[in-house]
Write a structure and sequence with these properties.
Strand content of chain B: over 45%
Distance between the termini of chain B: 37 Å
Structural class of chain B: mainly beta
Number of helices of chain B: 0
Largest sheet of chain A: 6 strands, mixed
Strand content of chain A: over 45%
Number of strands of chain A: 11
Distance between the termini of chain A: 38 Å
Structural class of chain A: mainly beta
Shape of chain A: globular
Order of helices and strands of chain A: EEEEEEEEEEE
Helix content of chain A: under 10%
Oligomer: heterodimer
Shape of chain B: globular
Largest interface: A-B, 27 and 31 residues
Amino acid sequence: DQQVKQNSPSLSVQEGRISILNCDYTNSMFDYFLWYKKYPAEGPTFLISISSIKDKNEDGRFTVFLNKSAKHLSLHIVPSQPGDSAVYFCAATVSGGGADGLTFGKGTHLIIQP
Amino acid sequence: EAGVTQFPSHSVIEKGQTVTLRCDPISGHDNLYWYRRVMGKEIKFLLHFVKESKQDESGMPNNRFLAERTGGTYSTLKVQPAELEDSGVYFCASSQDRASGGARFFGPGTRLTVL
């Protein structure tokens, strides 16, 4: 029973264009969401996060949008660069709860084409 | 500042053997987490330490897995006896506080292969 779903295993985008990665969740208790980027043979690297009290958070080229009613979030990367090619994981948690682990999606492999 | 380190980077063992993985968190981080990614699947939470205490071990698969964090610094994760389905990449993460999901800094992982 996957509580965080990334339905696109891979995504190919041309350099300079916008990359949009999607994530859906089923657990309505989740109130904090994070995106991680992972290169081969490395651990996930934190990119950006958003609390459920917001619907948008920006950090440079990265913007995360949250639609609570649809239980959907997305990561926008503009403009896409070759170094953005990696696997992107969406993760969620219940902040302030007793359980503190992150629940991850399976990841989306983003490929930036020159 | 040194990041989260894990040892070994790779381990190949036979079914029934014992393996111990080590994680050194970022200095000063009280929170330490273990995660595991089985091939092609999502990264799954195993357990969470606050200093030397187990805060949440709800993700531990069974009693063949034992995690310790004596003294609240580094942590070990022992698998005894190892089974084929234990193969995967084991990640450790640490954070200074639990706010906002906690686990921000991940180590490079230990790839465990059980033959």
